[in-house]
Design brief:
This is DNA repair protein RadC. The chain starts with a helix and ends in a 7-residue tail after the last strand. By secondary structure, the protein is an alpha+beta fold. It is about 50% helix and about 20% strand. It has a five-stranded mixed β-sheet, with helices on both faces. It has two domains: about 1-65; about 70-195, Cytidine Deaminase, domain 2 (3-Layer(aba) Sandwich).
Length: about 200
Amino acid sequence: MTTSSTSAASSPELNARQQRIVDALRPFFGAEADALYEANGRSLQKLAYSARQSALPGFHRLATGLALAQELLCEELTTRPVFETPTAVADFLKLHFAGQPFESFVALFLDSRHTLIAFEELFRGTLSQTSVYPREVLQRALHHNAAALIISHNHPSGSTEPSRADEVLTQSLQAALTMIDVRVLDHVVVAGARSLSFAEKGLL
């Protein structure tokens, strides 16, 4: 405890937003909230990822809270067409990828009304790339009897700028899924608290 206090004392003072975060973390971690926030670089994203990987009681409670927040957003996506709730889609994906130090590829499977049927992480990669296999994406789309998809992946580098490989992958998936009458409505790139929509940028 002495080490944590010394470390906290030598750190710059928390700003108002950071103090609100620490106060919100106290019900989960008690007196350790300050030290844990500092240990995760004052990043709620990193702390969220740590919570999902740990079985410790405080982390487990926080992970449960995050899961409930995702389900709240998911509930909105299952009752209304996704394009009526673009903010909910982006928030849902940001929450899923929060603090994740590796790339992964996910899909939201949608019905003919463009409401959510299922959400799945399909591929997991390294810090800078993920291998995506269109055949497996098609298989999962058929499994869910989906009429459309929103695909997404994260950039741990912090940049939302899509690479040429991202654009080629999107085009390949579009072409393959068209063969089974499934539309790709959007490809969302998530980097921390920011996201980029291919559809909004005219890349789809």
